[in-house]
């Protein structure tokens, strides 16, 4: 079984938590970590600086497309960050945790 971390950002912690809970309740993900961050980026020819909440989502690789669809459905951004990062090494116990807590 291949596992991944999916990263996405939100303008509010409440929105991030709501989507994290929806993903967990659907059993698409095993764990979600929330981090308060500051992002600097170009948007519509302007340099922007914004506080955001970053989610690190741990799941099976086969669930990526369903998770991506759910994020796009619920996200308030026009162009949300949805990045899949392959996990090349993982402990057997954590792999078991992901397997047991996802569909």
Automatic annotation (TrEMBL):
GO terms classed as biological process: response to metal ion
Molecular function via GO: copper ion binding
Cited InterPro entries: Ion_tolerance_CutA, N-reg_PII-like_a/b, N-reg_PII/ATP_PRibTrfase_C
Family classification: Belongs to the CutA family.
Protein name: Divalent-cation tolerance protein CutA
Native species: Aliarcobacter vitoriensis
């Amino acid at each position: 079984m291949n596992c991944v971390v999916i990263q996405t950002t939100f303008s509010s912690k409440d929105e991030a938590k709501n989507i994290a809970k929806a993903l967990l309740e659907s059993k698409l993900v095993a764990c979600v970590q929330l981090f308060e961050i500051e992002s600097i980026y170009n948007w519509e020819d302007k340099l922007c600086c914004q506080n955001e909440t970053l989610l690190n989502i741990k799941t099976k690789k086969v669930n990526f497309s369903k998770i991506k669809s759910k994020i796009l459905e619920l996200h308030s951004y026009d162009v949300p960050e949805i990045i899949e990062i392959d996990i090349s090494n993982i402990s057997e116990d954590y792999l078991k945790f992901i397997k047991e807590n996802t569909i």
